Amino acid sequence: xxxxxxxxxxTIFLLxxxxxxKILTNAIAEKLETKASSVTDMMQKLEEKxxxxxxxxxxxxxxxxxxxxxxxxxxxxxxxxxxxxNRLNFGWDEVHEIxxxxxxxxxxxxxxxxxAFLGYPETDPHGEPIPGRDGKxxxxxxxxxxxxxxxPGKTYVLEAVLQPTDVFLRYLNKVGLGIGxxxxxxxxxxxxxxxxIIIEGNSCFLSKETTQNLMVKxxxx
Length: 221
Description:
This protein is 40% helix and 18% strand. It is α+β, with helices and mostly antiparallel strands.
């Protein structure tokens, strides 16, 4: 597949992870910052290659082959992000675009040696699961909850960021939140569901949009 085809496949996979059923071309176009008509043309090409099932005006889904291809790309992307942060000391908000370029390298032996070099990590620097060589996700995330559903008066640990855009990660850096950060929920405002937390002795307010993008576990779980 071309890099453009791979980008479309991975985007569909990531949108499917949200559990919204068939993925509309407009949603794909928005993520890739391109025209819906261009996405439609690409869906027809990918359907011919057996990567997607596509019905005009009704949306698209990956086939089994398309999902395998997407998981391989996600695996490479998250391994490269882990390498860049853990071994080259990049910030977690600096690695997405670099990893996006590196994920298109086709050498399977390089990917497997990279995985071994990193000690077979189960999650990337943003807490997102890294698929195994067989496409399976080893991380057991049943114990995680969305921060927006957490309760006041309890202590939680940040485990994953659902939409780790660079600008959002820089915001989390600013308020002192990172993977493994422990914090106490002081209160949740009835008006807008914003949340006051205490982290390292400092008070911070998080919007509902922010809490919906964070996955946490109760301290002690």
